[in-house]
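Lab notes, practical 5.
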Amino acid sequence: MSTIGSFEGFEPVSLKPDDDDHPSERERLPVEERSSGRDSASDRIARQPSVTESALYPNPFLQPRSTRKYFVTRPGAIETAIEDLKAHVEEKRGEVVQGFWLLTEVDHWNNEKERLVAITEDTLLICKYDFIMLSCVQLQCIPLNSICRICLGNFVFPGKSLDKRQGEGIRIFWGKREEQSLLSRWNPWSTDVPYATFTEHPMKYSSEKFSKICKMSAFTAQLVPAVQNAHKTSSEPGRGKGVMVSTEPILIETYTGLMSFIGNRNKLGYSLARGSVGF
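Output from the prediction step:
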């Protein structure tokens, strides 16, 4: 049901003061004050740090140095992505986007993938966006009236699985799991999967702005009524039965998980700065 569409000219400057031309603050103090044998108030203040860590980084979220490597946090990146997707949807599909979210998709082989997700009146859009080149790479369009079940819960794995993850997510079904072919089920690159699984993006705690668009609860709160409304207004045969929302464990059926072990720990599914190379 879903459709896939070097710097030159700078001279180093020493920050060490010249002892001959710039006497220290201690040497500039009056003789009487230095000979008093006790610190003056101004001397004590001068020895205190001029800027504290909290003043440098007043953000109560993650420290800037830990978020700069994600290209999505670069100034204007997420805004450009949202405008690109909004313009595409309005021009090509004639629909109006009701909300955007930045989430992490977890595929059927437990691989994490950075995704920009949008909801219109009729469609759920899952966009693979390149935040380095600022361009949409792939767009999957799922009719809301084809979504039959939404599952919320913690991730679980087979008992003998060597690759496990903590946390909770949401799984959206638009087809029966039994309809998925065996080849598609065990193919790590298959896109013919009748469901999508999401969890919160790692940058949720980077700023207040990202906290809003990465919050899975807000995404769920808008998705469920949108799907319910799409079922009510659908005139297609077999539609209108509604959507089932359940709370249960979300099974990810991987056992060795070598590919996801390497990929997830190196964040290969994200637009990330990797030293002098970004991909």
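Observations recorded by the TA: Confidence is low (pLDDT under 50) at residues 6-38, 48-58. The chain is about 25% helix and 25% strand.
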